[in-house]
Amino acid sequence: MVTTAGAGVDLLLALGLPVEVKTFADADIAGRHARLRVRQTPPSPSMVAADRGGDVVVYVIPRLTESLARIAETDPSVAVVATDEGVVIWDTERFASATTPTEPAPTRGRMPWARFGLLRSLVRTRRPRTQIEIASETGVTQAAVSQNLKRMPDLATRTSTGWVANDPARVAASFLEEYPGPGGIAQYWYGIDPVVRQASMAARAGVDCLLSGDAAADLVAPWRTPRTAIVYARSGLKLAPLGFAEAAREKGTLAVIVPADPTIWPLAAAYAGGWDAPSNADPLLCAYDIRTSGGADADQASERLVQLVLARWSRGD
User: What value does the mean pLDDT take over residues 86-114?
Assistant: First the structure.
């Protein structure tokens, strides 16, 4: 399984170490600021030496090596989270878990965020747009847009005024089938309020938060009783004062995600121009989150949201 920052945070929490997520690459752990370094292979001693700085460096890796363990057990500025083994070395102290947290494994290699953003952008409107416009809408470079458009001649066509989807249904399907999730760090909370209220409460606790999953769909295309609340946030949220309790993934009623995907906020803003709820993530991302949330009717609820998006594309909204 590919190691992720989210799996590392899950393990830290499971071992009783308080974590306050700042971004997908740094967090406050047990009162100290830490830089998260996610690696699929342990760093060498020379790499560790080069990484040292004012903050604690936390290596999130699959398995621990003896050399790295020796460094972390003698230097409080170096910490290790070995997700496959359920072992953490923090402030020179070793912690071990009887069970290890699990998380869907993302695709190996560099994540093609520009492609996934481009797919969602193409479904937003049937109006042809230039590469510059699409780059602005997705938050990636024009070069990235150009490269990805060249790789998908079956999905998009260049007209005299810009690029347009050949078949928006196929583009939407490609996104839903290929997207590995937003990456970054997810923290799970348990609350007793209705799911939509939980999401709204959490979103008000941060800045620029976006609703997704059932909580977002309930505002624009209600179809099933909301079962999951998902909030995308720029940094971790302090929800305990609002009556929430931190929870394991399977027990949580609310997920707060600090994503690695850089296209989420630009696309939410682009869709907000013709969308009823500008506090929502873009509808294709919402459909993805619903689809992966579980429940016998998850696929149907996701498809209903996709059909609404396709109808608006057809009307030229």
Answer: 73
